[in-house]
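Blinded run. Sample ID left blank on purpose so nobody reads anything into the name before looking at the predicted structure. Input follows.
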Amino acid sequence: MQPKVMQSLRFALQPAVQDVSVTWDLPKGVSATVLSPPITSIFQGQRSLIYAQLTGQSSEAADGCVTVKYSLAGRPSQSQLHFSLTPKEDTG
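Blinded prediction complete.
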């Protein structure tokens, strides 16, 4: 029990990532359903995974973008990830 208490104390004494929001920029006809529970905070040394299911089809350029906005030590920040929705050709 002592290691758990010490870990909780370490987390309480350091800044945490808070106010996490995820925004999807997808082509028309494609939608994202987030499968992960909402993230409330992340502490140093922890990680959090966000799972989403993309559905639909698009005749446009098959690129998407996900933006994660958050606050660390009171400063707003954001990270973006651009990705392709076109499957890679099987190279054998």
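Unblinding after everyone has recorded impressions. The two ends are 51 Å apart (CA to CA).
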